[in-house]
Write a structure and sequence with these properties.
Elements: H1 2-17, H2 39-44, H3 46-60, H4 67-87, H5 91-98, H6 101-105, H7 110-125, H8 138-166
Helix pairs in contact: 1-8, 3-4, 4-5, 4-7, 4-8, 7-8
């Protein structure tokens, strides 16, 4: 449901964006302002959280040549871990680990593929000698990742509700 996703996105947008460290006055030593993530995301995707926090720290330190790549890596970890959680123990798990991010994105539901692809493209753009999409910013990349996280969070909540309403009556 897109209205549900929009609500989750607006709730998560607050979490994912936080202050824009590049545009703020620099203070030394820089403070690492880590946004709170929904507990379900922190518990289910600790490696994503670790890499995202490191990306925020790099951004706070104005390490502008590496932050796009690090946010892109956090996206890849999130998407692959999400997909693996759906197929744990099956042969698909090894395939997901070995495939490219673009291949993993194709495994996502259609409503999230486009935003995940946009985030991947922006992250990849930061690996080139010259950026091809100069009109897009790190803030755009973080917004796109925030929507992906919001959709994954919505999936977690929907599965919890589904389990609740379908549990045997006692």
């Amino acid at each position: 449901n897109s209205s549900c996703s929009n609500i989750i996105y607006f709730q998560f947008q607050y979490y994912s964006l936080g202050p824009d460290p590049i545009s703020e006055e620099k203070v030394y030593p820089p403070s690492s302002q880590t946004p709170p993530f929904p507990p379900e995301i922190e518990e289910s995707y600790p490696r994503f959280i670790k890499i995202y926090k490191q990306s925020l720290e790099a951004e706070t330190r104005n390490l502008d040549e590496i932050i796009g790549l690090s946010y892109r890596k956090s996206l890849e970890i999130l998407i692959k871990d999400f997909l693996i959680s759906k197929v744990a123990g099956s042969p698909d798990e090894a395939a997901i680990k070995a495939e490219t991010l673009a291949q993993s994105i194709k495994r996502l539901s259609l409503d999230i593929q486009e935003i995940a692809k946009a985030a991947a493209w922006l992250g990849n753009d930061h690996s080139h000698y010259e950026q091809r999409h100069e009109e897009m910013t790190i803030k755009d990349l973080k917004n796109f990742i925030g929507v992906v996280v919001g959709d994954i969070y919505a999936d977690i909540v929907k599965n919890k509700a589904r389990a609740f309403v379908n549990k045997p009556k006692t």
